[in-house]
């Protein structure tokens, strides 16, 4: 259900204090027995389904429900909505929606004619890792590897990916680079950092200002990564100029050129990589 249609629900459903306004997410099952609340958006689902696919939720539900005002830290809140206990999560509603849709729709979710959007792939990896939903994390990483291989023309990598299909790769936008940098750093996915950082170096104002997702949330680079990209831009510019000079036929032999600028460029030391490629699994 579209959250914009949930205004009538706030008039008819008595809400606990922790949910001042009911905004229903895409996954709201009337026979669900637990509610996941993420930044004001609620999803009604089944504890058994969450437990079956996520070790984290399985462990969470195995503990007794705490008393209200219990000093023990917990995701559970004994307050209920429509008879369902509420679990407060810190996740983005957008990513949680992708995660739950994949969890419930399973094979049909991954067998759509069009590729999954980039945000969905990131959600499967991030939340699949956080909640130890192994199958979703694996599927997300599989599709991200295909995107990386297509962009960098890694034929060997493409042929090594089992069940490779080009239509599994969502269209790459350079604005995705900021999200990919943050994901790769937070989850130690170093093999994706070179591609992501290089993409950030090609951004204009977005490199400084960040990108705004469809739900209005803003995502930016960390200060260290921003400094790395700004420094790398200068290195890349020098390298590109050098390549242009080297590609000119009249400059094929540096010794035969009387152009001082060419000789200066030809003597520039090799530019160091922002990060080294790591092809380990």
TrEMBL record:
Q: Which parts of the chain span the membrane according to its record? A: none
The family database entries (InterPro entries) matched by this protein are listed as: BTB/POZ_dom, SKP1/BTB/POZ_sf
Give the highest taxon in the source lineage: Eukaryota
SMART domains from the UniProt entry? BTB
BTB domain residues are 32-112
Q: Name one Pfam family in it.
A: BTB
Q: What is this protein called?
A: BTB domain-containing protein
Origin organism is: Meripilus lineatus
- Lineage, uppermost ranks: Eukaryota, Fungi, Dikarya, Basidiomycota, Agaricomycotina
